[in-house]
Design a protein that fits this description.
This protein is an all-alpha fold. It contains four helices and no strands. Helix 3 packs antiparallel against helix 4. The longest helix is centred in the C-terminal third of the chain and has 64 residues.
Length: 120
């Protein structure tokens, strides 16, 4: 089904704004908290427990989506952490390398300057 077709279906939820209001009204989210992937995963698991009997195929489909979203969220978190660590390590190593090169060159420059004074 296309997005427009879904939005045209009768019901309380017809788009993003009504979706957030609905989840708040049925106590599946707190209005003042942002929706993260992990929060939505928990919401999907809660939905499978809301009313019985939910057909097993529907429960399995909701759980499948929840597990996939959970993996996606974990991958995104790991990616952000890895990028931040790499940036911090790069900055730290760059500073240390520059300082080491300067320290290694500095004594040679002092020695070269001294030898210029003694030969004049």
């Amino acid at each position: 089904m296309l997005q427009d077709d879904i939005e045209a279906l009768p019901g309380a939820v017809t788009g993003l704004d009504s979706a957030e209001k609905y989840l708040t009204n049925v106590l599946l989210r707190q209005a003042d908290e942002p929706l993260s992937l992990l929060h939505l995963v928990g919401t999907l698991f809660q939905v499978t427990q809301m009313a019985k009997p939910i057909p097993l195929a529907v429960t399995n489909a909701i759980r499948a989506v929840a597990f996939i979203l959970k993996q996606q969220a974990a991958s995104e978190i790991a990616d952000v952490v890895a990028k931040a660590a790499a940036k911090q390590l790069t900055n730290s190593l760059s500073t240390n390398i520059v300082n080491s090169v300067i320290a290694a060159i500095a004594p040679q420059e002092r020695w070269r300057n001294r030898s210029n004074f003694t030969t004049q």
